[in-house]
Amino acid sequence: MKINQFFEEMIKAGASDMHLRVMQNPVFRVKKDLVRTDLPTMDRDELAGAINAILDEKSAADLKEKRQCDFSYAIPGLGRFRGAAFYQRGSVAAVFRAIPDAPSDFETLGLPSALKTITEANNGLVLVTGPAGHGKSTTLAAMISNINNSRHAHIVTLEDPIEYFFKDNKSIVTQRELGGDML
Predict the structure, then answer these.
(1) If you write DSSP's letter for every residue of 69-120 in order, what string do you get?
(2) Fewer CB within 10 Å: N-end or C-end of the chain?
(3) What is the pTM of this model?
């Protein structure tokens, strides 16, 4: 089974995340639960080969030199995924998160009105911080989408990796990826 088939099964299961480790069946996160699958395991060489096959040159170098990397991966007709590859117990492992096609709006996410007010400012720097998996990227995507759809502005993002692709609407959205578009 090829790694793309794991992604297909992930989407079919409605999973947000997929965890891959050597000689372990893939594990999906469905809602808040970890669900162990009966998908085939991969040995050390198979998993390393599968991960390296989907990495761009910079991410592959980071994995080799820093023993970890963050990247994005797209499968036409299926979706986009944010990935984190790393070493654990001397072998490559990875976690993937599905990236929705379009960001959700403030109301759907239940975000406070104060965040919408921030998007009305004409200039400034906004930092959104917090632990992994707590909605930073989703919150920022909603904010960028709100600005893009409501007024004329030039929005610049610095991302690692780029998650949501924005099409210019009323605004111009310039998306720069750390390590690729800038050092």
Answers:
(1) EEEEEEETTTEEEEEEEEEETTEEEEEEEEE-SSPPPHHHHT--HHHHHHTT
(2) C
(3) 0.81
